[in-house]
Design goal:
By secondary structure, the chain is mainly α. The protein folds into two domains: about 60 residues, Winged helix-like DNA-binding domain superfamily/Winged helix DNA-binding domain (Arc Repressor Mutant, subunit A, Orthogonal Bundle); about 60 residues, no CATH class. The protein contains six helices and no strands.
């Protein structure tokens, strides 16, 4: 299922922040992504309406089971694409992270899947 780039960017941010802290707040996302708090609030409303986060996001932002599943699908490609930018192209962590995110947001799912398969196959050969 294809998601808009804002959904992908914010869902990944929520997942990353929730791994660092139990409570994810709009201000945390604002800082993490370098966007305004009103922009975060607007996107949280969209994510809540789409069923990805719970409605009471003003206190703490929590992914719904549907949101968790969606993030898992997105990250299944993200990790290998990040590996491509970081290990194959030798980009620093932050730059590789940004490039992988941009790639996932802008390229079709089948292209992401194809790159993922190439990375996995290459890594398996290196480890053999």
């Amino acid at each position: 299922m294809k998601h808009c780039s804002a959904q992908i960017k914010y869902l990944i941010a929520i997942k990353e922040l929730s791994e660092q802290d139990e409570y994810v707040k709009c201000v945390s996302i604002s800082r993490h992504l370098g966007v305004s708090r009103p922009c975060v609030s607007k996107t949280m409303r969209c994510l809540a309406n789409s069923g990805f986060i719970y409605e009471d996001f003003c206190n703490s932002i929590v992914l719904t089971p549907q949101g968790e599943e969606t993030v898992s699908e997105i990250l299944s490609n993200f990790n290998e694409i990040y590996t491509f930018f970081h290990k194959f192209l030798k980009l620093p962590h932050n730059e590789a992270h940004e490039q992988a995110l941009a790639f996932i947001m802008n390229f079709p799912d089948d292209t992401c899947e194809r790159l993922k398969k190439i990375v996995v196959r290459t890594m398996n050969k290196k480890n053999s």
